[in-house]
Amino acid sequence: MALLSVLTPVLALLLCLVIGFVFLRSRETSRTPGKDKEASKLDFRPWVDQDLQDDTEITERDEDEWVDNDEEDDLPHVPYSPPRYCEETMLQRSKDFYTLMNQRRSVRFISPEPVPKEVIDNIILTAGTAPSGAHTEPWTFVVVSDPETKHQVRLIVEKEEEVNYRQRMGDKWVHDLAKFRTNWIKEYLDVAPYLILIFKQTYGILPNGKKETHYYNEISVSISCGILLASLQNAGLVTVTTTPLNCGPQLRILLKRPANEKLLMLLPVGYAAAAATVPDLKRKHLEDIMVHV
Amino acid sequence: MALLSVLTPVLALLLCLVIGFVFLRSRETSRTPGKDKEASKLDFRPWVDQDLQDDTEITERDEDEWVDNDEEDDLPHVPYSPPRYCEETMLQRSKDFYTLMNQRRSVRFISPEPVPKEVIDNIILTAGTAPSGAHTEPWTFVVVSDPETKHQVRLIVEKEEEVNYRQRMGDKWVHDLAKFRTNWIKEYLDVAPYLILIFKQTYGILPNGKKETHYYNEISVSISCGILLASLQNAGLVTVTTTPLNCGPQLRILLKRPANEKLLMLLPVGYAAAAATVPDLKRKHLEDIMVHV
């Protein structure tokens, strides 16, 4: 009993230590899981902007806030007869479209010459024909032609890109990009008559303020961007597909976009400059990209 | 002192309880972080297939295994003069392309009539003109025309889709899809003359066996898919963009694709069936998708 009495303060001390340890651990693990996940993601994907993540991944959802996408369950089905061509025409069309698209290149030298806004309107309309998860059409295309705003975009992008090149990207990635002769100076952001900033809506907001799920929003908006690139090429315009790292939140605020929208891509758009050059890259052959079973 | 002596067993018991609690907690948190992340992701994005994730997120990387994408740092730059049209022609072309693309719809009723393989070749070539992060071209298009393989694909997809509809997707999502009259019966997988399975290469494997980083591979392949959809529409063919949940690994093994490839999309391709119908959906207006600054 005397021994036990002697042990009591030791036990009390041990208890305090263990409780302290539990408290510290719980503080560590009670950081929002989103933040932890982001951090571990950054380790593996240094080139992925936090703002590029689907919001569905990183925000906590109040299930009650999410409503069904559309009340029109009983949408009528209508007959559909798309254009159809004879085999010869089909073959010729597929060849011609390939020839046109195969001339597309990412161009960093853009002419300041003006481009009719109506052409841009048609291109955005065309991008808006893309399919999307549950037909949510989760895209916003911000077209910037105002010189002052373009310059603000440039300042934001160049500031972050310099940090990216100097610190975030790592030697390997900078080395991988060297052949494109890219760096953080983005003159085209001032020069191009239009900047198209493509935002994905990570969720929708209905007129009654409720949120709706945007399934596969990043894939949907990227598909839409592919159709936009085809449309630009078809019109004789050029761009370079950029994903400015860590600029999303600043650009979103500059352009007054709501919090459910995240910047996915930034495209400077115009005619190619007369002196435009591109790296002499080749594309893979058909047998390197297609497998027939 | 007597009081303390009496307290000793209580303190000892408390100590045991606290230590037991710490032990249980540490077992819970010592599950691999990757698994935790996947699990928490599943909570927030029930429709995202584990196999759809960038491998760069979920695999551990041995940095030494990763090499630079291309040794040709000093790739020559060459002059580039893309097609250019007068304003009137440009406007007309952009309008015509919009009209064509605006007729595109996701079609679930596909005719069994044969389609020349050369058209499919041109369409895949066209998809391969998409831009990609650091020009890694991280795509593989598996074109399935063999009836037995198409049927195997159907069996895999229907089996998983039935589970998806019954268990994984949740009432809300099933409800959201009701207007499309979709369910787990996918007759078109047998009927369509071609299935195009689009795989993203989450990393590349060089001839020497080393791995190369595929930056933004999911976005790149999705852009490529957008150009593919434009090309199908241009040729007078139809498809429906599907992302079969949880079928990726089984389909990858069926089609003998390597572990660095993950299924992103499955497109059944052919002419529209004579009796094809589509839900009477509308697209958003220009002012609902475009903001001009």
Task: Walk me through what this model shows.
Two copies of one chain form a homodimer. Chain A is of the alpha+beta class and 293 residues long. Chain A has one domain (46-66, 87-289): NADH Oxidase. In chain A, 46% of the residues lie in helices and 14% in strands. Chain A is built from eleven helices and nine strands. Chain A has helices at 2-29, 33-44, 55-58, 87-102, 117-127, 147-168, 170-178, 188-191, 217-235, 248-254, 286-289; strands at residues 66-67, 77-79, 139-144, 194-201, 203-205, 211-213, 261-269, 277-279, 290-292. In chain A, strands 1-6-5 form a three-stranded mixed sheet, with no helix packed on it. A three-stranded antiparallel sheet of chain A has the order 3-4-7, with helices on both faces. In chain A, helix 5 (117-127) runs antiparallel to helix 9. The longest helix of chain A has 28 residues, at 2-29. Residues 26-72 of chain A have low confidence and may be disordered. Strand 3 of chain A pairs parallel with strand 9 (290-292) of chain B. Chains A, B: This is iodotyrosine deiodinase. Chains A, B: Its EC number is 1.21.1.1. Chains A, B: It comes from Nothobranchius furzeri. Chains A, B: Residues 103-271 form the Nitroreductase domain. Chains A, B: It is an enzyme of class 1 (oxidoreductase).
